[in-house]
Design a protein that fits this description.
With 149 residues, the chain is an all-beta fold. The protein has one domain. It has no helices and ten strands. Strand 8 and strand 9 form a beta hairpin.
């Protein structure tokens, strides 16, 4: 890791052959000198990727977690992964959303989280999605926590 800082944020993105601007992920690797050492985007045609969080391991693997949603996908917990020296692969769904959001506050949550396991290899992630079963009377979103080993 050499002291580099990795960060991610939501961004508007235009995707080739997609007629609408979507929510995607911008990610950055900042060097110890404060320069941008690497940067990129993650997007999925027809879908919205919201509230990302990123984690990078000493072995060089990187994961980004976010909520994935669209007109045909209920808010789901999703992620992308890049092994050491490889580019991010496709979007993977860790937990499918059970229904549309019924958030009484007219907003979708505000967080995702990612951290390195004490073993130095596994990536732990959390993000919001719509689980099945019990629902809060005001909103129906919950948090999915998962491990990428």
């Amino acid at each position: 890791m050499s002291g580099n800082t990795w960060c991610s944020l939501s961004t508007a993105i235009n995707i080739k052959n997609d007629s609408q601007t979507r929510d995607g992920v911008a990610w950055f690797k900042l060097s110890t000198s404060g320069n941008i050492a690497a940067q990129g985007y993650v997007a999925s045609a027809g879908n919205y990727l919201i509230y990302p969080a990123i984690v990078h391991s000493a072995s060089g693997s990187t994961g980004i977690v976010f909520t994935l949603t669209s007109g045909s996908i209920n808010p789901s917990a999703a992620y992308v992964f890049a092994g050491s020296g490889t580019a991010f692969g496709g979007v993977h769904i860790a937990a499918h959303g059970a229904s549309p959001s019924t958030d009484g506050a007219s907003r979708w949550g505000d967080y995702s989280w990612a951290t390195l396991d004490p073993n130095g290899t596994d990536l732990w992630m959390a993000t919001e999605y719509v689980p099945s079963g019990f629902q809060n009377p005001i909103t129906n979103f919950g948090t999915r926590i998962f491990d990428l080993a």
